[in-house]
Amino acid sequence: MSDSAVPRRPGADALARIGHPAPAVEPADASPHTFPDGGTWRTEIPSVEGPEALAVVLKESTRLDVPVHRVSQGSGVWMLTDDEITEMVEGCAERSVELCLFTGPRGTWDIGAATRTDSGGAGLRARGHDALAGCVEDALRATALGVRCLLVADEGVLWTLHRLRETGILPADTTFKVSALIGPVNPAGYAVHEHLGADSLNVPSDLTLTHLTEIRRVSRAPMDLYVEAPDDLGGYVRMYEAAELIRRGAPLYLKFGLSRSAGIYPYGAHMREQALATARERVRRGRLVLDLLARHGADGGMSPLGSRLPGALRRFPAPEGT
Predict the structure, then answer these.
(1) Which end of the chain has less Cβ packing within 10 Å, N or C?
(2) Confidence class of residue 231 from pLDDT cuts 50, 70 and 90?
(3) Alpha helices, H only, the chain
């Protein structure tokens, strides 16, 4: 880790020598929050769709010295066998990496036609009681097999799972992560998701730095952000902003996605080579981001490996009599 107290801004020294002005850094824009361990950032490798992809990620992270706090999967609990989930749980436990699996079903794979219209009506949300119940079933099955982080793409599912956690039906240390495809885009929406039970929240990668500061004025819930976003989320590449994203958005998960790559959800063996190749490249992208942070003296503040809990967050009270 760098000993520099003040990170160097990209190109600052060279630009100063030719008299090119740089925007002033406003201390008031910085987030006042951290993870409970005092860290300001953690790492996540997304789209790790099964045990084989996980093995590739763990091997490559060792080879490239990329610290990994969390891996997440996008296809869903229901797309994995019990043996596959158990293998992933055990593989992550050996390396003190958090495993996050997506709950399903969701609207984009439903029989409803609205999600296939130009408006994309309802998006990933769980349509009807049966879809909600399917997400609950996924949560119960995954946690029984040792998974302690679940991805959700519906506010009702989030609130329901939080209530199950509060009553002890789901383990108390289960955490809920809000999907990038329903991520809040303003401070009020972010705070509502925190109150509904979210422990970390994906925000769209096209939010401005000012937007991140606005969110941090109302909530300390950890933020997940693709430093490089997949194409279906815009394909944005914000590597050179990584230090400022951390300064504004902490506590922040740096997510190493991959643009210019075809989607793999729901994953199956017919996409094996692509899934393994993209898993490997996501780790490499992480190395590139960490190298940039180090060159700018901004690589301090990483949470210790194995850290996963978000700290105390604000919740809505559960309805009486339920």
Answers:
(1) C
(2) confident
(3) 12-17, 51-64, 82-94, 128-144, 155-166, 187-196, 209-216, 242-249, 272-295
For the residues 151-157, what does the mean pLDDT come to?
96
- Residue pointed to by tokens 């119960």: 140
Q: How far apart are CA 318 and CA 201, in angstroms?
A: 21
CA distances from 214 to 191, 220, 230, 277, 291 (A): 11, 11, 25, 37, 28
- Is pLDDT of 321 > 70? no
Question: Using CA atoms, how far apart are residues 168 and 244, in angstroms rounded to an integer?
Answer: 39
Residue 67 φ then ψ, to 5°: -65, 135
Distance of CA 318 to the CA centre of its chain: 26
**What Cα–Cα distance (Å) separates residue 266 from each residue in 160, 275, 279, 281?**
24, 11, 15, 20
- Residue 2 has a CB neighbour count (10 Å cut-off) of 14
The bridge status of strand 41-45 relative to strand 252-256 is parallel
Three-state SS at 131? helix
- The pTM assigned to this predicted structure is 0.93
Tell me how far apart the alpha carbons of residues 147 and 134 are, in angstroms, rounded to a whole number: 17
pLDDT band per the 50, 70, 90 thresholds, residue 2: very low
Q: How many CA atoms lie within 13 A of 302 on its CB side?
A: 21
**Per-residue pLDDT tens over the stretch 26-81:** 999 999 999 999 999 999 999 999 999 999 999 999 999 999 999 999 999 999 99
- Cis peptide upstream of residue 251 (ω within 30 degrees of 0): yes
45 three-state secondary structure: strand
Q: How far apart are CA 235 and CA 119, in angstroms?
A: 20
For residue 239, the number of C-alpha atoms closer than 13 Å in the C-beta half-sphere is: 19
Query: Do 297 and 2 meet the contact criterion of CB atoms below 8 Å apart?
Result: yes
Confidence (pLDDT) at 110: 80
